[in-house]
Amino acid sequence: MTTGWVLTDPPTVPALTPYDLRCEHLAEPLGIGSARPRLSWRLASPVRGDRQEAFRVRVERDGVQVWDSGWRSEQATSVDHGGAPLTSLTDYTWHLEVRDAAGAATGASATFATGIFHPGEWQARWIEHDYETEPPFEPPVDKVEPRSERSATLAAPRYLRRSFDLPAPVVRARVYATAHGLYQLNANGRRVGADELTPGWTDYRYRVAYQTYDVTDLLHEGENVLGAVLAEGWWSGYVGWDTRSQAHHYGKRPRLLAQLVVDHPDGTRTVIGTDAGWLERTGPLRFADLLMGESYDARLELGDWSSPGHVLGQGWERAGEAGADVSTVVAASTEPVRVMEDLPAVSVDRRGPGRYVVDLGQNVAGRIRLRIRGAAAGDRIRLRHAEMLESDGEVYTANLRTADATDYYVSAGADEETFEPAFTVHGFRYVEVDGYPGDLTTADVTGRVLHSDTPVAGRFECSDPGVNRLLGNIRWGQRGNFVSVPTDCPQRDERLGWTADAQIFLPTAAYQADVQTFFANWLEDLAVAQTPDGAVPDVIPHLITGRHGTPAWSDAATIVPWTLYRSYGDERVLRQAWPSMRRWVDFVHTANPGLIWRNRTGGHYGDWLQVGVCTDRDVLATAYFARSAELTAATARVLGLRDEAAAYGELRDRIAAAFVAEFVDAEGKVRGDTQTGYLLPLAFGLLPEDLEQEAVKHLVADLERRDRSLTTGFAGVALLCPVLAGYGQLELAYDLLHDDRYPSWGYSIRHGATTIWERWDGWTEEQGFGPVAMNSFNHYSLGSVGEWLYSGVAGIDQAPSSVAFRDLVIRPRPGGRLDWAQAAYDTPSGRVTTRWEVADGTVKLDVGVPPGTTATVHVPTADPTSVRESDRPVAGQEEIDVLGPADGVLVCRVASGRYRFAADA
Ligand code: BGC
């Protein structure tokens, strides 16, 4: 099932109503790892000024209440389970009631289930192919088995099965499973769940997540079979640019761990775990690797191998047991990767006999489903994936570096066959199909889009198609790179969790999707990877590069938890991250007692991929040092750590002063005189007021000198539009947004981009393709302007002291080529919406504010006295508090509800 990743609307309701109930921020999760989970909900109401006066949560198990919060008069839309710690392996239902101002109550219910809490509850043992009795790598089956030199080193995936009898009917059956490697489960011949690339990527040295699936409907009394396919994945396959000899990052052999727990009507339980009772062998999958691709020989299919009654052929042997150490096994805490959308092919270009280039029309992360008709047994089809075409129409694969991104299928000779890889993912828009029998048509090819199933949270549209395309490309950049962890790119031999890319894009990502658990999960890997002296590696999960402690990269340690807290309001993320945050700032401080960050700068990439300028590295580093100290101080304040808050706050002020003393002259010129050099201190508030305006002038002068052209790289680009707009340079911000000359966002769009390119010169009219050593066409960092589309153009933001958007600031910015813009965003309280439109001398502004929150609305107008709401004067309206005119706007404070402002433009 695929969703297309669209925003679902809240329910239309007659009165205050809770919806979207979550447990541990997940919808009806099975197998949560916490005995005191957080329960949360959103609210909808058509009534102005509506708010939840009180709520009550009751948690029950088998109809027996285990906790009653009682009525609580709090505004919160989340609460931690406050009863006795929950029991493992148990289903719970929770009932929520909310009461509005008038005392009327409505309710909603949801379920969740706990997972395995105690290591002792794992009866299963890790199992693997018994390499003691077998050579580790299988020789090719015959000469047609296609392998590149690199894929030749990959071991064939294993097929595992266990037949067992259930003595009684099944009331409830759950399977808890994970792998060192990648796994897919079957039960009685049917696929279990729809998750892909499980167990996902975590720092396997410390933790590997188990997934929980309900298999009640797949099992029955009598003989049953559990089956699994096990591939290498991040565990022992290729990740990053390492050669195979350096690979096997976490281990050499894939392993499976699975435990089935079946409840019978009489209250008894049957537990079946992986152990030496399982059988295993190779099958049609000859190799499967995230970077190299997959090879499937349909002639070797095993029939109904995971069904009861299957007569075992030769080749099945006992699985080897590989220990029972489950100390690193933890419950999955974030949404899995799934097939999120199917894209039909838009064109097929015949390039030669049996050779075609197919265009999906969109650069994605995923794979192809191919229909094959009329092939003879042994016919071999090769699929090569590419983001771009050469000028002669052939696929451009040079930028993939050592990633083969090539799948193979060997036909069994059936009338019709379907091939879809299972354990790989490619970043591509085009696929070359070679060796296809007969005529390939668009109907034979489907693009299957894969990414983490983070719930969509936002939507933005405006009157300018170019800006909409930009937002679309940013969205696709997010989808292509949120694959279990936030990656830099999905295509070449990298796909790593580069920390700067993640922190720079997070504010944009959080407007588009609920990425709370996605990043909280990643932060756990960040904390464990910190060096003993506190440095944060450049890529998380930590792998490949020995570099750590890089300005703007390692600062993800403070920026990511703080941004999550600000967006979602769950203090737990700060509590968990606090030691890591302070250790990081202390690391930089210890190495740089003079407060200018020059020492221990790790890989120091500066303003990565800036154009034509070189922002001073000490300027960039020191600005980030101040920022990290500030966020650490802010975190200490939230956590009630007074002394630490004072100490880090004071440190931040001293760094800011040192920054000014060292880098800023009396005219407000920042050393290096580059756009990013100004943007950083302005965005981070490092300059005294008098120098601020001067710095803005220099920034504007630089832009004007360059005919309003940007020079920013990863670190500066997100700040351009917000800083310019924030300092009265809105039209300049819009000029950059609309620009389509090189370098600009519009340039790539004019040349057909469907995702954000890694570099401004990914492809240019003069040079063609940019430097092949590093030229991804799906890198989200330069797309971090997306945040401003939501917060600036559509105007959905929150007050500096607000968290979880409880104190909204609605400040849309009509301008540029736009006649209208609109956005919707799901805050933790509920949906906020804005829509503005300028036509015939009138500006209209529609605002929807979720229950229990307030909004400061800046109504744009040339004449504040002309502002009306729902055709009535604003003054005197009960839910509107007019704060007064300011700089082209009338500022009003409104309670929750829907408001329709109109004024003279
Ligand atoms: C990655 C970047 C990353 C950078 C560090 C590149 O290879 O793709 O996105 O942040 O290295 O300089």
UniProtKB/TrEMBL annotation:
InterPro entries according to UniProt: 6-hairpin_glycosidase_sf, 6hp_glycosidase-like_sf, Alpha_rhamnosid, Bac_rhamnosid6H, Bac_rhamnosid_C, Bac_rhamnosid_N, Ig-like_fold, Rhamnosid_concanavalin
Presence of keyword Signal: no
EC number: 3.2.1.40
Pfam families per UniProt: Bac_rhamnosid (PF05592), Bac_rhamnosid6H (PF17389), Bac_rhamnosid_C (PF17390), Bac_rhamnosid_N (PF08531), Ig_Rha78A_N (PF25788)
Transmembrane residue ranges: none
Keywords from the UniProt entry: Hydrolase
Catalytic activity reported: Hydrolysis of terminal non-reducing alpha-L-rhamnose residues in alpha-L-rhamnosides
Domain of life: Bacteria
The Bacterial alpha-L-rhamnosidase N-terminal domain, residue ranges: 170-341
Enzyme class: hydrolase
Domain called Alpha-L-rhamnosidase six-hairpin glycosidase: residue spans: 457-793
Ranges of residues in domain Alpha-L-rhamnosidase concanavalin-like: 351-451
Domain Alpha-L-rhamnosidase C-terminal: 795-869
Protein name listed in UniProt: alpha-L-rhamnosidase
Organism: Kribbella orskensis
